[in-house]
Write a structure and sequence with these properties.
By secondary structure, the chain is an all-alpha fold. It folds into 2 domains: about 200 residues, no CATH class; about 55 residues, no CATH class. Helix content is about 85%, strand content about 0%. Helix 1 packs antiparallel against helix 2.
Length: about 260
């Protein structure tokens, strides 16, 4: 008979021990299976928790990456806007500098023209002064010569009146007086001819002074050519072509046009 189960009969004590051992083994196996199931459930729960935590971390990482990418995109947009503002500012500065350069060139041209006018006026004044000085000097010389001739004539008359004792002496004196008068009249004519001959070429002499020097003309021509080319490009590209006027002064616009021309060839 069994000790735990009195209704069960065992033939021998060995059968009882064997049954008892099998029962203990079954209990151990059941406990082991229970422990394995508990361990498996625990491992599965821990694995699921780890997977969920890892997924949550990945989600947070993705969210951070998206936020960083969004910040980078906003930063790029801001940088592009700042670059565009800087480009517009540079274009305005270049336009202002070009305008100031044109104004300075115009002012320099006006100053050069005024200097040329002043130099011409000074030259004309100097020429007039020289002409007046030469004319006055010649008139003074002619007056001195005429005075000297009149003094000679008067002295000759006085000597003739004093030294005329006879008719021959009187005739000789009168002939001398006539000769001196003739010589005086001839000298007067010569002085008049010299005056006319010297004053006429001075009056007709022309001194040519350029109002605008040649180098200033070349500079003005180059400035006008540059201005005309720039205005033509602005009108053709900005107004007729429908583009922006500021793009005319950019190097990329002209390189693009040259590329198109090369492709067309």
């Amino acid at each position: 008979m069994s000790v735990d189960n009195p209704n069960q009969e065992y033939r021998t004590r060995e059968e009882y021990k064997r049954a008892k051992a099998e029962e203990l083994q079954r209990k151990k196996d059941a406990e082991k299976r229970a422990k394995d199931e508990a361990r498996q459930q625990k491992d599965a729960a821990e694995k699921r928790a780890k997977d969920e935590a890892r997924q949550q971390k990945d989600a947070e990482k993705r969210a951070k990456d998206e936020a960083r990418q969004q910040k980078d995109a906003e930063k790029r947009v801001k940088d592009e806007a700042r670059q565009q503002r800087d480009a517009e500012k540079r274009a305005k500065d270049e336009a202002r500098q070009q305008k100031e350069a044109e104004q300075r060139a115009k002012q320099r041209a006006k100053d050069e023209v005024q200097k040329a006018k002043d130099a011409e006026q000074r030259a004309q004044a100097v020429v007039r002064k020289q002409q007046t000085q030469t004319v006055t000097q010649k008139t003074e010389n002619a007056e001195k010569q005429s005075q000297a001739l009149t003094q000679k004539i008067q002295s000759a008359d006085q000597q003739a009146t004093i030294k005329a004792p006879s008719q021959k002496g009187e005739k000789g004196a009168t002939s001398k007086v006539k000769k001196t008068e003739k010589s005086a009249t001839r000298e007067d004519q010569r002085t008049k001819e010299q005056k006319n001959g010297e004053t006429e070429p001075v009056s007709h002499k022309r001194i040519r002074i350029r109002l605008i020097p040649i180098w200033l003309r070349i500079i003005l021509l180059l400035v006008l050519v540059i201005v005309s080319v720039m205005t033509g490009a602005v009108v053709g590209y900005g107004m007729l072509g429908g583009g922006e006027i500021a793009e005319v002064f950019k190097e990329s616009t002209w390189t693009h046009i040259l590329d198109l021309v090369d492709k067309g060839k």
